[in-house]
Amino acid sequence: MARADHFEGPYQRVGNRPLFVFDDPDQHVEDPYLWHEGGKYHLIMKDMTGGIAGEKHAAIYATSEDAEHWEFAKPAKAYSREVRWDDGTTVLQGSLQRPQLLMQNGVPTHLFTATADEPGGFHGMTKSWNMVLPLA
């Protein structure tokens, strides 16, 4: 991790270890999305193995006072790959990749992700698209 007083730098390294270190060496995360709201940093990211969220490729949610020391929510799952459509049917998406949030008045209102129709991931998909999910 690196910090700077301005986004143009100069940047200074903070620590020499990853921000997230797990007991299980097979546990890993990707696609972090970070924002600042209510005096805290917030983070959603994809749980690749499901060891934290309880569901493979679901997202986890964490908060931090300093963006260096993080605490996972309890429960940690931010969202599932299971999507409920307007007609009430549910579908297990292949994955919800690269989460991004639409912020309105400093509050997240919509989740944007890349997705596909194959529940096993992108390898066997026939369709891929961007999805927008309104947040409650």
Task: Give the SSE map.
Layout: E1 2-3, E2 12-13, E3 29-37, E4 40-47, E5 59-64, E6 70-79, E7 82-84, E8 90-92, E9 96-104, E10 107-116, E11 128-134
Antiparallel strand pairs: 1-2, 3-4, 4-5, 5-6, 7-8, 9-10, 10-11
Describe the model.
The chain has 136 residues and is mainly beta. Helices cover 0% and strands 51% of the residues. The protein has a single domain (27-134), classed as Glycosyl hydrolase domain, family 43 (Tachylectin-2, Chain A, 5 Propeller), CATH 2.115.10. It has no helices and 11 strands. The strands form 4 sheets. Strands 3-4-5-6 form a 4-stranded antiparallel sheet, with no helix packed on it. It has a 3-stranded antiparallel sheet with strand order 9-10-11, with no helix packed on it. A hairpin with a 2-residue loop joins strand 3 (29-37) and strand 4 (40-47). The two termini are 32 Å apart. The mean pLDDT is 90.
- The number of domains is 1
E-strand count: 11
Major β-sheet profile: 4 strands, antiparallel
Any idea what the CATH superfamily is called?
A: Glycosyl hydrolase domain, family 43
Task: Examine the secondary-structure arrangement and name the CATH architecture.
Answer: 5 Propeller
Low-confidence stretches: none
Strand proportion, as a percent range, falls in over 45%
What count of helical segments does DSSP give?
0
Radius of gyration: 16 Å
Helix content: under 10%
- SSE topology string: EEEEEEEEEEE
For the record, give the distance between the C-alpha atoms at the N and C termini, rounded to a whole number. Answer: 32 Å
The assigned structural class equals mainly beta
Q: How do the strands of the widest beta sheet line up side by side?
A: 3-4-5-6
Average residue pLDDT = 90
- Name the CATH class: Mainly Beta
